Amino acid sequence: MKKGVDFIGVAVVFFCHDGQGNFVMAKRSQNARDEQGNWDIGGGGVEFEDTVENNLRKEILEEYGCAIQDFEFLGYRDVLRIIDGQKSHWIALDYKVLVDRAEVKINEPEKFDDIAWFRIDNLPEKLHSQLHIFFNNYKDRL
Fold first, then answer.
1. Is the pLDDT assigned to residue 83 strictly greater than 90?
2. Which residues contact 54 (CB under 8 A, 6 or more apart)?
């Protein structure tokens, strides 16, 4: 059985920032599950028998190699997409997370081609298909 396809998946999504108006994004590689070549803020599925907060910490460490300094729950979204002709449904638990910019790195080079810091008013081209919803929902809190 496959999360998000055979049953609703639950994911943590993280907007990692440095407290100075900058936030980090990673460019998805050709090895990524989907949305290859698109810039994304980060996220991962919540694992069975693990807490949401622990999953948040684990996913940020896995993707960006850094620890959380502070975090704020922003809200949740239903993520409904069609991927490769197959319907997908996830519940995204969205977080704003403070990290130490000096610690952030590509920690999963097989999944990401690049990493960079951006500001809300200077986004890269080719964003993940769901980011416009994320930014629209939380623009006043980022």
1. no
2. none
Question: Cα(first)–Cα(last) distance of the chain, in Å?
Answer: 35
Residue 38 in contact with residue 28, Cβ under 8 Å? Answer: yes
Residue type, 126: K
Query: Which token pair is 114?
Result: 């690049």
Delineate the domains of the chain, giving CATH numbers in brackets.
9-138 (3.90.79.10)
Q: Which residue's structure tokens are 């050709």? A: 30
pLDDT in tens, 28-72: 999 998 999 999 999 999 999 999 999 999 999 999 999 999 999
CA 7/CA 22 separation, integer angstroms: 35
CA distances from 43 to 12, 56, 95 (A): 5, 8, 10
Q: Measured between alpha carbons, how far is residue 87 from residues 28, 35, 65, 82, 132 in Å?
A: 21, 15, 32, 4, 20
Instruction: Say how far apart CA 73 and CA 80 lie, in whole Å.
Output: 21
Q: What is the pLDDT of residue 2?
A: 87
